[in-house]
Amino acid sequence: MLVIFGFRTKREFLRWVSFVCRVCGQSQRLPLVREVTKFSLFFIPLFPIRVKHLVECQNPACRSVTKVSGEEAERLVAV
Predict the structure, then answer these.
(1) How far apart are CA 10 and CA 56, in angstroms?
(2) How far is 54 from 42, CA to CA, in rounded Å?
(3) pTM for the full model?
(4) What percent of the chain clears pLDDT 70, i.e. is strictly above it?
(5) Distance between CA atoms of 20 and 33, rounded to whole angstroms?
(6) 3-state secondary structure 21-64
(7) Sign of torsion, CA 63 66 70 72?
């Protein structure tokens, strides 16, 4: 019997948020992204394993990715 399973991560853009980059310190509008990793069985995504919220710096010299909590992401989206 052959069982095919794995994990797949999808990125979803939520919105542009006003945020101060924690690496370079610039205050700018940055994209807030949600990454959802799902367990797949026979290439069918079944249930989420992990959800992360990220803010990506657009400064060409920085390009850092900062992980934010779910509560902080909700607060940023509500503003």
Answers:
(1) 16
(2) 29
(3) 0.81
(4) 100
(5) 16
(6) CCCCCCEEEEEEEEEEEEEEECCEEEEEEEEEEEEECCCCCCCC
(7) negative
* pLDDT tens for each residue of 29-56: 999 999 999 999 998 999 999 999 999 9
Sign of torsion, CA 69 71 77 79?
A: negative
> Within its chain, how far is the Cα of 64 from the centroid?
13
The closest of 77, 75, 68, 79 to 15, measured between CA atoms, is 77
Please tell me the total number of residues recorded for the chain in this structure: 79
* 76 token code pair: 């940023």
Q: Quick one: tokens of 6?
A: 């794995």
Q: Which two tokens stand for residue 44?
A: 């069918």
